[in-house]
Amino acid sequence: WRLVPPKLGRLSRSLKLAALGSLLVLMVLHSPSLLASWQRNELADRRFLQLNKCPACFGTSWCRRFLNGQVVFEAWGRLRLLDFLNVKNVYFAQYGEPREGGRRRVVLKRLGSQRELAQLDQSICKRATGRPRCDLLQAMPRTEFARLNGDVRLLTPEAVEGWSDLVHCPSQRLLDRLVRRYAETKDSGSFLLRNLKDSERMQLLLTLAFNPEPLVLQSFPSDEGWPFAKYLGACGRMVAVNYVGEELWSYFNAPWEKRVDLAWQLMEIAEQLTNNDFEFALYLLDVSFDNFAVGPRDGKVIIVDAENVLVADKRLIRQNKPENWDVWYESKFDDCDKEACLSFSKEILCARATVDHNYYAVCQNLLSRHATWRGTSGGLLHDPPSEIAKDGRLEALLDECANPKKRYGRFQAAKELREYLAQLSNNV
Predict the structure, then answer these.
(1) How does the average pLDDT of the chain come out, rounded?
(2) What is the CATH architecture of 246-425?
(3) Cβ atoms 51, 60 nearer than 8 A
(4) End-to-end CA distance of the chain
(5) Which positions fall inside the FAM69 protein-kinase domain (predicted)?
(6) Is 424 left (phi over 0), alpha (psi -120 to 50) or beta?
């Protein structure tokens, strides 16, 4: 503020006071509805959940819990007047089973902004009727989301390829996994699409096209060791996942030892998603401090935004042997002067067996001096202790991992960085 001229400073304060006054006036004008929204549990309201839009929705497996009042908003989440500030449509709530006693925190997502959801409705209606508004229940069977209804046996790559990052280059093995683990059906466990109801198939395909995050969480579940938040269920257009903890950003100025441990975990996540026994490479196309969270008790780093995850089947790549499939692919450093920049080719990610994308994404956007977020720079490992800074090894490894100077330098730097961080954090 010392750099702001006095007149501009007074003007800014006046504008803030005016905005606050306007908000108070709105609250007074809406006081009856304000009080009502505070007292009423809208998460038990079918229309608020947009259950009426099914099968143009994300599922119904948690509807009993919602409609029975077992899920309630936390504090300010009850005030609909504040929804205009909640652009991402993400809410915090409490959930409790009568038999368990007590409540646990959950995160609720509509999987898109109000504008994106409105565009989805318009798109469905235009494809079905040629008009921007319609009855979604009648329109859905007349769209591509119903093309696999009836006695279709399998969900095949030709039907959905390119619909979203998850299926930019799907293999039959991946799609069988999606169907077999689909949690919004009572017949989960079968890879046969014909075992799902027509409405369930439409919900599955719509989720796959609009925002496949629930399908990523279901197909690569935390219960099996994958670093994603746990999927709980859905009702209409409200999806529930477990609350992990504070976002990674809140640890930006944590003690050095804590930040080293978090950095080591992030590199381990990059390795796990790149090389695993299942031979699926999960490439993170959107990497920022907001997309990770840290458990308050175990300190474990978890991915909490999995919308932009591309899955490549390494087994299929080795089988089909596309051009240059066995040539190691190095991601190009992107110094774009913006937050969370990444440079990649989806086609190459889908066609190479050895790729350094995840190491590049974590090093450039989270750990190294090139990482910028919310006006800061220096990355999670900024300001190391003097003895580590003087040694220079950490800075050299981070620089080579983010912007390699040698051919295939990032692969080696990522390996050495994981080992070095493990030593620093005693995670050997």
Answers:
(1) 89
(2) Orthogonal Bundle (1.10)
(3) yes
(4) 46
(5) 206-404
(6) alpha
Query: What is the per-residue pLDDT across 154-194, written as a single tens digit (0 to 9) for each?
Result: 999 999 999 999 999 999 999 999 999 999 998 778 899 98
Q: Cis (ω within 30 of 0) for the bond into 55?
A: yes
Ordered by start, the domain boundaries in the chain are 246-425
Torsion over CA of 99, 101, 103 and 104, rounded to 10 degrees?
-70
Separation CA 341–CA 398 (nearest Å): 17
Q: Which of 422, 243, 220 is nearest to 212 (CA)?
A: 220
Sheet of strand 238-242: strand arrangement: 71-73, 90-95, 104-109, 238-242, 231-235
Is the pTM above the cut of 0.70?
yes
Distance of alpha carbon 236 from alpha carbon 47, whole angstroms: 9
